[in-house]
Amino acid sequence: MTRTLLGFRAAAPAALVLAVAAGVTIHAQQQRPPQPPERMVARTPTPAKPGEVGVLPVQGNIYLLNLGDVNIVVQVGDDGILLVDSGPADWSERIAQTLRDRFGNRPLRYIVNTHMHPDHVGGNAPLARFGRPGGGDAGGGGGGGGNQGARIIAHENTLNRMSGTTEGETEQPQEMLPTSTFFTEKKEIYFNGEPIEILFQPAGHTDGDVMVFFRGSDVIAAGDLFSTASYPILDEKRGGTIQGYLDALNRILDITVPRFNEQGGTMVIPGHGRLCDAADVAYYRDMVTIIRDRVQDMIKKGMTLEQVKAAKPTRDYDSRYGADAGSWTTAMFVEAVYRDLSQRRIN
Ligand SMILES: [Zn+2]
Fold first, then answer.
1. Ligand 1 centre distance from Cα of residue 320 (Å)
2. Calpha distance 309→298 (Å, rounded)
3. In angstroms, what is the span from residue 117 Cα to ligand 1's centroid?
4. If exposure means fewest CB atoms within 10 Å of the residue's CB, which of 50, 106, 301, 335 is most exposed?
5. 3 state SS of 299
6. pTM: predicted TM-score of the whole model, two decimal places
7. If you measure from the C-alpha of residue 115 to the centroid of ligand 1, how many angstroms do you get, rounded to a whole number?
8. Does residue 81 contact residue 300 with C-beta atoms inside 8 Å?
9. 234-281 residue pLDDT tens
10. DSSP of 197-241, one letter per residue?
């Protein structure tokens, strides 16, 4: 009896040791998955209930408005209100109501469009008309608005696409269109006591993206040149490229100054996802760089798109950024990177 028991007991740990050893061997052959910065867990999204506008004070004059899965940015002060992006069309009334509730009758003077996608410009017409959060009529105008309400600022490429001037684009209604455009690398305005830099970033997400740097508040509104919700979305038909997107992330990192130990300091608001700092952007930049390099290596080896997809160059990041369904899947991302880098190859 005792012998049997002992024998049984002896067998079990031996099997366990074997299993563990095998597991360790298998594990050691895999690359250790990169770990995100720890504070990514700590900084949770805005406290919005489904369908409600979430408001998150960021720092200085800046607030993040969360509209479901889209963010817009508010700068507010004595001069009035500036918005970065106007959100999807069906959120306009809720946005206007939130501005009124939180910031009183301050006039809405500016809307900056980071790019032309409908979830970022859908509220242009109603919000620019709304102009004055008090709901009153023009009553003197002044400032940037004039009798049209808020001025809508965008890069010229964004206007050209929205106005249908660019081939293949559909013309949008006149009142949706940016009223103040620029074609240089940077446009500067001074509003609510701080300098604001509107920075053109070519060929990243589209060919007309800008990010907005609030120099006094020390906040960057990155639009869709940064995301914590997905892999980089490359709108290839509209000039998006992986290298342009990486350039944008590096430009953000050039501007950001961490406060302590890579944390805090300049805050970065993505078009989709949660509030971030330099460490979060650096993690994302490193991820994009690693995947770009992997796909580049595979192309150099002569691998086809199907072979590259089968090799899963994104595997260790899929649990965080991947998607099997929806408007931007992992497969679509890998395909876009492959096409872009294949076309770029010089040899
Ligand atoms: Zn977009």
1. 19
2. 10
3. 5
4. 50
5. helix
6. 0.84
7. 7
8. no
9. 999 999 999 999 999 999 999 999 988 777 899 999 999 999 999 999
10. EEEEETTSSSSSEEEEEETTTTEEEEEEEEESSSS----GGGT--
